[in-house]
Amino acid sequence: MRAKTLIKSALYPLYEKRLLAKLDLSKTPRHIGVILDGNRRWAKENPSFDGDTSSAHGHKAGANKIIELLTWSEQTEISLVTLWLLSSDNLKRSPQELESLMEIIGSSVEALGRTGRWSIKVLGSLELLPEKLQERLKRTEAQSAGIPGLKVNVAIGYGGRLEIVDAVKKYLSSASGLGKGINQIADELTVNSLDQYLYTAGQPDPELVIRTSGEQRLGGFLLWQSHQSEFYFCEAYWPDFRRVDFLRALRSYSMRQRRLGK
Length: 262
What we know:
Helices cover 47% and strands 13% of the residues. The protein has helices at residues 2-22, 39-45, 55-63, 66-75, 95-115, 131-144, 160-177, 182-188, 191-195, 243-254, and strands spanning 31-35, 80-87, 119-123, 151-158, 208-211, 230-233. Helix 3 (55-63) packs parallel to helix 5.
C-alpha cells in the first residue's frame, strides 16, 4: 500500500503538468464559487499526531488549504473566487465548536489579508456573528481594498435565502425612501433592480461552483447568482483537495457546452 502511495505521489506532478498544458485558459471561468466541505469528517479519519480528531483540527487543516487554492486560481487566470467558510445554518452548532470555528475563521481571513496579494470582500449576515469577529473581518476588508488582481469573497454567516430576503428589504427601503408607493415599487421590481442589492452587487455571477466531500447539493450557496452556473462535485474532503482536483474541475468546465438558456 505504501509503495502504491509513493508511486502516485511521484506521478501526480506529471499528471498536473499534463492537465495544465491541455487546459484552454481562454475558457477558464472568471468567477468560481467553492463550498469548502468535509473538514469535520476529514478530522475523524485523519487524527493529529497527538490523536486529535476534533472539528477544530479539521477546520484548521481546511484553513491551511485556502492560500493554495487562491494561488492555483491566479495561475489559471481566474479573476474572482467566492469561498463559503460558514453558513448561517452552521450557527446552530454547539457553542464550543462555534467558538473555536469563529477564531479559526477570523485568523484565516486576517492571514489572507496579511499576504497583501488579494482584495477581500466579506459576504453574509454579519450581524449574526460575534461583534469581535465582525470587527476583524471589516478591518481586513478595508485594509485589502484596492489591491489589484484576484478578488476574493469570503462568505461567512452566509445563507442564500437570507441574502435574497436582505436584498428585497434593501430594495423596498430604497424605493420607499424616494416616496414611491407600493404599486410603483412592485411595477419597477425586476431581476436587474434586485441584483443591485445582493451581497455580490457589481460582480459577475459564478460560471463554476465546486463542492468538495462528495455531497451533491448547493445547500443554499449563491442561490440567486448560480442560476446558470456549472457544478462540479469532488469526492475529496476539503483539506485533501489537491491541485489535480482543481484542474480536473476546470477541465470538466471547459469541455461543457454552455447554452445559457439559448
